[in-house]
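Please, structure for the following, as tokens.
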Amino acid sequence: MPHEPKWRRFAPPRQKRYSAGMNLEPAAALPLTRAEMDAWLGWYEAMGAAVWCADEPADWAVLEQQRQAARSQQRAAPVALLPSLAPAHPIAKPTPRSLPPNREPLPGPPAALPTAAIVPAPATTLEALREAIAAFEGCALKTTAKNLCFYRGIAQAPLMVIGEAPGRDEDLAGKPFVGAAGQLLDRMLAAIGLDDSKVHITNAVYWRPPGNRVPSPQEVRACLPFLLRQIELVAPRLLLVLGGVAAQSLLQTDIGITKLRGKWRTVNIAGRDVPVLPSLHPAYLLRTPIAKRQAWADLLEVQRALFASSTP
């Protein structure tokens, strides 16, 4: 005999009780026998309903109709206007207190950073550009980061990969893309025949944001002149931009990365048009593995474009 659920052992036997005239509506008004009542009470007790709520049964449908009618009457009743909250007598404005002797007023907010201060000094090599970034004081991330993460790979490469910002592992090593996301990026590039000897990898922000948070627009904007100069010195044939922060900064748009990815754009660097392909960041791929198929399609586009640009 198959196992019988516990509630079935306590449930009363089903009985079809119909009213006269073969009406299919159950005759709910018919009284229950003592055995049927004991069976129903035993079933409710087995289900945990062992406390009475009232001495008389209540028709909850009627009670709900009464509540709705009461709420309708309250909404229809006129609302009494609140008395005016204006004070009876006008309040005198406080007079400014004079500073005590030997006290000077607090300084006002600092002036905006001059434009010349955020433009990198002319750098003809990547090493000179690195020194200019290290001496730069216009980005607050520098005060909390341990190291400057400039780039890894070769100085001049046909493909330049730009991410968003360094993480903890990158901050400790002083190089971009060396953590879990960087290892995934290396495997992705190896799948299309690329490695550190053929690419130049960097970030839109050169210092790690505290807690690996997303860099603010002000922090990205402060590093953008250096990034543009770095692209000019590397002189890549193609740019692969990973993540929304880097893509929006370089392309000067507010469109999300899911709509930007997989579509070629062009950015003008020092009078030269460079093709740009936005794609998903490896850190996002680690959190969302199903999106790897989209990233793989983008990598195939990069491979095709590199082959086409190298073919005479």
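The chain has 13 helices and eight strands. The longest helix spans residues 292-310.
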